[in-house]
């Protein structure tokens, strides 16, 4: 049997993408609350605070804040062993800089975790998933400011202490490495509250913010282990292997360089020190970074217990400019297609073998347990897709998961990768992070709501719901 006993089959979400209740229970405004709806090729706008008349999809999202009991019951029906969500930082510290936490926010997660544990579903918790307090951006300059380390660590410590008997698996920052795509306003803003391309020296700002986050993460890991030695605290990276378009050595080297950008953050999280390709880059770029001896010691002492990652697609690069489609090049795409792969409606290459490649590369590089905490396919689906049995037949989603789980098996069976769990993204339809759309659907459960925010919010299992239930029940044997 390839998957270990107690393998964490489940699903994943993030607070801001499903909870709604954006100003309830004492919650403060987060960076997700000032992002409008966008679309494929139409970036979400970041507004100056919450502006009347704008469409902010995360404000209501799918109203999980009020409906979580019914939703958790559906997850339990599927047989989930684990459920990954995040704690909204702004429910606990509404402005980020308070000294005392907001009890109503803490209570909400107590109730949610109790509800999960009632069904033996293990909560897998991200502390910061694209939803830092907006006040920390406007008042302190976001992660440009060293003070953010203390704000984050205080928040993390409060959560560790409060939930020490309810939550065992933690992650610090979601997809912390996305911001290495320095030209993307979205990636910088959601990771660090900074639009790097508008900075006087974007690379200086990126590496400084990254450093403070890595120190904050390492401090949190140390504190967490002191609070409960049984905690498993991981980091989380967005993993998108970069393939060279051709076997021309120039393409190969470019692909390798591109992978450095992906690995930089996890290298520090997992190994406890900066890789030489980064320190030489800082010198080459003449950066003047605030990094103290004490910081370096903390990085060394706060390495993670496991590495969690998302996997959706692979990307292609080439030095041959004539092969790059400029109209197709944006913050989510290199502008070069893989001729061997099909793409989703949002242009993401579907590459099941890439998940095996990912598992092997990360396992070899870090020799740590791995956890897949996001994977899946965004599809256009409406109730009109329903068949006569009244169900959405999402066969494309089933095929996507079948092919990916097959490859996971190979990594575990043939190559001995230590894999702890699999939590497909958006197990219930929710607001897309990249586009803000509701109609970029990932779920096993359909939620009746459209991009304009209209719909009953009713939930309905899709065909994949029953398929995944069978997969979990057979520990991945019956695909
Ligand atoms: P969406 C790309 C772009 C934006 C966020 O993405 C991303 C990625 C993939 O690396 O990251 C994760 O909703 C993220 C989730 C997000 C999911 O991918 O743009 O951790 O919050 O929803 C899927 O289709």
From TrEMBL:
Keywords: Glycosidase, Hydrolase. One of its GO terms (biological process) is carbohydrate catabolic process. InterPro entries: GH, GH_1_N_CS, Glyco_hydro_1. GO terms for molecular function: 6-phospho-beta-glucosidase activity. GO terms for cellular component: cytosol. The keyword DNA-binding does not apply. Belongs to the glycosyl hydrolase 1 family. This is 6-phospho-beta-glucosidase BglA. The gene is bglA_2.
């Amino acid at each position: 049997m390839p998957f270990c006993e107690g393998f964490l089959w489940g699903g994943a979400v993030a607070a801001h993408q499903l909870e709604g209740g954006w100003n309830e229970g004492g919650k403060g405004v987060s960076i997700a609350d000032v992002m409008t709806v966008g679309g494929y090729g139409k970036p979400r706008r970041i507004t100056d605070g919450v502006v009347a008349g704008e469409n902010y999809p995360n404000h209501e999202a799918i109203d999980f804040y009020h409906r979580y009991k019914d939703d958790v019951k559906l997850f339990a029906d599927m047989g989930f062993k684990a459920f990954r969500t995040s704690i909204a930082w702004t429910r606990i510290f509404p402005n980020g800089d308070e000294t005392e936490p907001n009890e109503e926010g803490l209570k909400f997660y107590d109730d949610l975790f109790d509800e999960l544990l009632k069904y033996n579903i293990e909560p897998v918790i991200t502390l910061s998933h694209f939803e830092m307090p907006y006040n920390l951006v406007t008042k302190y300059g976001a992660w440009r400011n060293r003070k953010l380390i203390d704000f984050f660590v205080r928040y993390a410590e409060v959560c560790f202490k409060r939930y020490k008997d309810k939550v065992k698996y933690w992650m610090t920052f979601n997809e912390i490495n996305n911001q290495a795509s320095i030209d993307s306003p979205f990636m910088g803003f959601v990771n660090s509250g900074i639009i790097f391309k508008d900075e006087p020296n974007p690379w200086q700002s990126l590496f400084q913010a990254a450093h403070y986050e890595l120190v904050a993460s390492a401090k949190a890991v140390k504190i967490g282990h002191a609070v409960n030695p049984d905690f498993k605290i991981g980091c989380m990276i967005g993993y998108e292997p970069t393939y060279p378009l051709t076997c021309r050595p120039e393409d190969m080297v470019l692909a390798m360089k591109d992978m450095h950008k992906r690995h930089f953050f996890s290298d520090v999280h997992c190994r406890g020190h900066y890789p030489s390709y980064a320190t030489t880059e800082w010198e080459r770029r003449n950066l003047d970074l605030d990094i103290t001896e004490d910081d370096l010691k903390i990085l060394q002492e706060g390495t993670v217990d496991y590495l969690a990652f998302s996997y959706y697609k692979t990307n292609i690069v080439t030095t041959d400019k004539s092969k790059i489609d400029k109209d197709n090049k944006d913050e989510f795409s290199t502008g070069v297609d893989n001729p061997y792969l099909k793409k989703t409606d949002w242009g993401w290459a579907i590459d099941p073998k890439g998940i095996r490649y990912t598992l092997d590369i990360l396992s070899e590089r870090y020799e740590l347990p791995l956890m897949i905490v996001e994977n899946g396919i965004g599809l256009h689906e409406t109730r009109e897709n329903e068949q006569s049995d009244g169900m959405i037949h999402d066969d494309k989603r089933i095929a996507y998961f079948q092919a990916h789980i097959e490859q996971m098996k190979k990594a575990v069976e043939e190559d001995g990768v230590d894999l702890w769990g699999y939590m497909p993204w958006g197990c219930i339809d929710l607001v897309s992070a990249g586009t803000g759309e509701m109609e970029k659907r990932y779920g096993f459960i359909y939620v009746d709501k459209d991009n304009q925010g209209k719909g009953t919010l009713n939930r309905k299992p899709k065909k994949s719901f029953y398929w995944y239930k069978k997969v979990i029940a057979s520990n991945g044997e019956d695909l």
